[in-house]
Design brief:
Beta-barrel_TonB; transmembrane; membrane; TonB-dependent receptor; receptor; Maltoporin, Chain A
């Protein structure tokens, strides 16, 4: 009730101020012409050193701490609304995510490393679950193949998260946000400079709760809530001039429920893979009646079961409203993550520095969901009447422990005409999977249970040489060797043991040329080559031969993926008719060999996932964005991304059959956004009022790479989202800011991804995007 009163008072106060602000707008606009509006300089670390975005010959998107707050970015899913060309795709539920850039991603249950590698403070970390977004200094998306500079090879790009560093003065902030669905997000940070310029410490943390928005008809439960606790300490020690040692320790835990996928499309009875539509049908008597009355499985059902049968379930759910499912599963989500990062930098001389970056991360993610996305118990993670208490609940669990270390030598030479970076990198990672299944019709329980290992060694070097005062040439290379291992653990369907090991190695490289036409315009051309390691899929029987046309039927081994690209671009950062403008345009084409994709199959009567190397793929596209400071109080901008991806050699062998891949999945052909920011100074020391509005549009896309053949019904529709925010800062001369926000204000029902399960479950499932959300936020700085 108090929240409602506060919200009403804030709305009333802001509404009154809007009237006086509108009267001031004309006067403010006239003054702005003479005040000299400016765009702030954007600094990025896309080449492992700080430099202006306008000087970097590669496509980069960046969001500062201020932009993250203005755009209301609190989760990975929010990033794609503000970063052109970045897609955040979900698979089986809202807590299984991966990044997509330029068509490169990673399929669930593939055993493949990510096509887009995320980093925290320059250390690669695994994507196992959604992560806490708080006290960030910036987020950058570096697009295109990576390998010569970043710790791990990736074929699509890298997403760089930089946490805030300690300040040299006592201070900090605290914020509280509350909205519909009882969603609460609180954050705080505090700088403690124990010894000025010598020992600086920053504490930061977040606590979140609520957010359930999906209704389950089976038991009338609301799903999708998240309770999150995360804390971070950063210690910046500078014992003497030239030496900096920054240590970051973060600990977090998350609990709640998944926002589960909904049954989006069922394969009709009589069509290939439509067996469950035939089995779980009123026409299948007496089986169906015996299921519903509890004769077949004693005690089932315990909740509401739609008597219309499996085939008509999606249509029935949609008739019951938005964000509705009907599933008899459990939807537990629990995650723990610990992280330690140490960066030590020694300035050997004015032109040479040595940096060491050590990283440790531990993640455990436990997720349960209804594998068949229906109220019928034909495939579950556990039997419907099995005991479900504490740690005995048999749910899908994955645990990852990773150590990495990188030693760099950076410097300049030849009268500072050459900037260079030389280094070595090491990584040791182990991941354990446990994924149980209960096969209802046979009353049989099985599990996928395996441990994979990855040990990586790499050496790299890159240099940029000033050919003239306007032209630079960059050349970089890395050689990487990776040892991949796998063993089946005690509860494995395939039997314990069966050790597998392979070593893969290959170079990565980059060559670029950039030319500054004038102080405002940079043009560049670059070509890169990189690769993504292969390995073993823990959800397939362990065999030594890869699943290729030459080795069909093959098994769980898959080959490395290789990519080569060409990119050309132009960057403008200057003024047009005295109006500050920043604009970027990039055009690229990639050639991918043996791209890693999955197909769900049935092996020995058990659902499984096979990782397949599709022979050849071509991806090309255009990315552009513009930012205009039209007036001192008005800023406008937008972005458009076009991606054309296709399998040019699409036929692969799958257990004795030819499978034709296409259309290309996970990538909308078009995406784009426009935004406006307006800020007015209020009279009589009342503070300032800011208004932000943005519109995001995304075209339709497939969440399966087999949507044109064996996995129909996997095309998701296009959608448009409208988001707004109003900030009243420095209220009456204080350090308090009150904000009202709304996302998806038109209440558009949309989907962010899905899981293609036609071969195993006769159903394709899709993940709901967030509904309309709104609320109030209060922030104070001190």
């Amino acid at each position: 009730m108090r929240t409602g009163v506060s919200l009403g008072l804030a709305v009333g106060s802001l509404a009154g101020l809007l009237g006086s602000t509108a009267a001031m707008a004309q006067e403010t606009a006239a003054a702005a012409v003479d005040s000299g509006a400016e765009l702030e300089q954007v600094v990025v670390t896309a080449r492992r050193r700080q430099e202006a975005l306008a000087d970097v010959p590669v496509a980069v998107s960046v969001l500062s701490a201020a932009a993250l707050e203005t755009r209301g970015i609190k989760t990975e899913a929010d990033l794609q609304l503000a970063m052109p060309g970045v897609v955040v795709r979900s698979s089986n539920n809202s807590n299984q995510l991966n990044y997509v850039i330029r068509g490169e991603s990673v399929d669930a249950y593939s055993g493949s490393p990510p096509g887009v590698q995320p980093y925290i403070n320059e250390v690669p970390f695994p994507v196992m679950s959604s992560t806490p977004f708080y006290d960030l200094q910036s987020v950058q998306a570096v697009k295109g193949p990576q390998g010569t500079l970043f710790g791990r090879n990736s074929t699509g790009g890298a997403v760089l998260f930089q946490t805030a560093t300690p300040g040299n003065e006592f201070g900090g902030y605290a914020s509280l946000q509350y909205g519909n669905f009882d969603r609460m997000i609180s954050e705080a940070a505090l700088d403690l400079p124990f010894i000025s310029d010598k020992l600086l410490v920053r504490f930061a943390g977040t606590v979140t709760s609520g957010g359930a928005f999906v209704r389950n008809l089976y038991d009338n439960q609301k799903l999708g809530d998240k309770d999150e606790r995360s804390g971070r300490i950063t210690i910046d020690a500078r014992p003497f001039d030239g030496l900096s040692n920054v240590t970051t320790v973060q600990i977090g835990e998350t609990s709640g429920t998944n926002a589960p996928n909904t049954a989006y499309y069922t394969i009709p009875c009589g069509e290939p893979s439509g067996f469950n539509s035939c089995t779980y049908s009123p026409a299948n008597q007496p089986f169906f009646n015996n299921l519903l009355n509890g004769t077949l499985i004693p005690g089932y059902p315990n909740g509401y079961v739609y008597a219309g049968g499996f085939q008509s379930l999606p249509e029935f759910q949609r008739s019951q409203g938005k964000y509705v499912i009907n599933q008899n599963g459990d939807f537990t989500h629990e995650a723990n993550s610990d992280m330690v990062i140490n960066k030590t930098t020694l300035e050997v001389s004015p032109t040479i520095s040595i940096k060491n970056i050590f990283g440790y991360s531990y993640s455990k993610n436990a997720i349960s969901y209804d594998t068949d996305y229906s109220p019928y118990p034909f495939i579950q993670q556990y039997a419907p009447n099995a005991p479900r208490t504490g740690g005995d609940l048999p749910i899908e669990t994955s645990t990852t422990k990773t150590y990495s270390d990188e030693l760099q030598l950076q410097g300049t030479a030849f009268d500072e005409r050459l900037e260079y970076l030389v280094g070595v990198f090491y990584l040791d990672s182990k991941e354990t999977y446990f994924s149980p299944l209960w096969l209802g019709a046979a009353n049989v329980a099985v599990a996928y249970n395996a441990t994979t290992g990855n040990e990586t060694y790499a050496g790299f070097a890159q240099g940029t040489y000033k050919l003239t005062d306007r032209m630079n040439f960059t050349l970089g290379g890395r050689y990487t060797s990776e040892k991949i291992t796998m063993r089946q653990d005690a509860r494995s369907l395939f039997g314990a043991g069966n050790p597998q090991e392979v070593t893969q190695e290959d170079p990565s490289w980059t060559v670029s040329l950039d030319y500054r036409i004038n102080p405002d315009v940079l043009v560049y051309a670059t070509t890169r080559g990189s690769w993504r390691r292969g390995g073993f899929n823990p959800f397939n029987p362990p065999t030594a031969t890869p699943l290729t046309a030459a080795n069909d039927p093959g098994g769980n081994y898959f080959e490395p993926e290789e990519v080569r690209d060409l990119e050309g671009g132009i960057k403008f950062d200057g003024g047009i008719a005295d109006v500050p403008v920043r604009a970027n345009l990039a055009v690229y084409k990639s050639w991918v060999k043996d791209i890693q994709k999955t197909a769900y199959v049935v092996i020995g009567g058990t659902a499984s996932s096979a990782t397949i190397n599709v022979p050849k793929t071509e991806i090309w596209g255009v990315e552009t964005d513009v930012d205009v400071h039209a007036l001192d109080w008005l800023r406008l901008g937008g972005s458009v991304t076009y991606t054309n991806a296709e399998f040019t050699e699409a036929d692969s062998r799958l257990f004795g059959s030819t499978v034709t891949y296409g259309p290309f999945g996970d990538v909308p052909e078009f995406s784009g956004s426009i935004y406006a920011d307006a800020t007015w100074r209020l009279p009589n020391d009342r503070g300032s009022l800011s208004y932000h509005v943005d519109v995001y549009n995304q075209s339709s896309f497939y969440f399966s790479n087999l949507g044109g053949t064996i996995q129909p019904g996997t095309k998701l529709p296009s959608y448009t989202l409208l988001n707004m925010r109003i900030d009243w800062a420095e209220m009456f001369g204080s350090r308090i800011k009150v904000s009202l926000f709304g996302k998806n204000l038109t209440e558009k029902l949309y989907y962010t991804g899905g899981s293609a399960g036609a071969q195993n479950f006769s159903v394709e499932s899709a993940t709901f995007g967030m509904p309309r959300t709104y609320g109030i936020a209060i922030r104070t700085e001190f």
